[in-house]
Design brief:
By secondary structure, the chain is an alpha/beta fold. It has one domain (about 10-210): Bira Bifunctional Protein, Domain 2 (BirA Bifunctional Protein, domain 2). The protein is about 25% helix and about 30% strand. It is built from 5 helices and 10 strands. It has helices spanning about 20-35, 65-70, 105-125, 170-175, 200-215; strands spanning about 10-15, 40-45, 50, 75, 85, 90-95, 140, 145-155, 155-165, 185. Strands 1, 2, 6, 7, 8, 9 and 10 form a 7-stranded mixed sheet that branches. A 3-stranded mixed sheet has the order 4-3-5. A hairpin with a 2-residue loop joins strand 7 (about 140) and strand 8 (about 145-155). Helix 3 (about 105-125) crosses helix 5 (about 200-215). The protein is globular, with a radius of gyration of 16 Å.
């Protein structure tokens, strides 16, 4: 840690269009880099959208543009790492815009810390999340993925983040090759517990766990 850690501003955006949320991220990113404000955490869910990271190949998208439109989703290319994934109202999503000089300037540490947030949140619902060596995100076993992480770090300030699947949406992931990983199972909290929480409840839990994992005082 290079200096005293700043406070964290948390904004719950509710259900918001992905492009609008991305624009907000970029605005806050510039302000955090310039030292105009402290770290920011955006919490939200999205209208259905397929996002294509920098590693996306044409063959990672199984469906035609018309099929995707008919499913109710849009397609957006983004600057984060990783391949293609789906975001929608079934997920609780966090976008940290934080200056890693106030934490650790270590990409691996940051990715594992994001995963730890999801693992703690899952634990509060009686679900054991794990890491799979060589893969990002959080899994329930080596083939069942429940949380997705993809980031961009510019001047040691972060963009994008983590999504945790709360409600079933495996049908949306069939339009794509999730993260370029092939035939994996997409699962959700609702499918793994007898008392499924709402997306709003999980979002609130993610906020709390993020603050604890990253050591903020609020």
């Amino acid at each position: 840690m290079d200096q005293e850690r700043p406070t964290l501003e948390v904004y719950d955006l509710g259900r918001i269009d992905f492009v609008k949320a991305l624009d907000l991220q970029r605005q806050y990113h510039r302000r955090v880099i310039d030292g105009a404000q402290d770290d920011v955490l955006l919490v939200c869910s999205h209208e259905p959208v397929i996002t294509c990271g920098t590693s996306t190949l044409d063959e990672h998208i199984y469906s035609s543009a018309d099929e995707i439109t008919q499913s109710g989703a849009s397609v957006v290319k983004v600057e984060r790492g990783g391949s293609v994934t789906y975001h929608g109202p079934e997920q609780a999503i966090i976008y940290p815009i934080i200056n890693l000089h106030h934490h650790r300037t270590d990409v691996g540490w940051y990715m594992r810390s994001l995963e730890e947030v999801a693992i703690r949140t899952l634990s509060s619902y009686g679900i054991s999340g794990i890491r799979v060596p060589g893969k990002t995100g959080v899994w329930l076993d080596e083939n069942s993925k429940i949380a997705f992480s993809g980031v961009r770090i510019s001047r040691w300030c972060t963009l994008h983040g983590l999504s945790l699947t709360v409600l079933p949406c495996a049908d949306k992931f069939r339009l794509i090759n999730p993260c370029g990983l092939g035939d994996i199972t997409i699962t959700s909290i609702a499918e793994r517990t007898s008392s499924p929480p709402s997306v709003q409840d999980v979002s609130a839990r993610l906020m709390t766990d993020f603050v604890e994992v990253f050591g903020y005082v609020r």
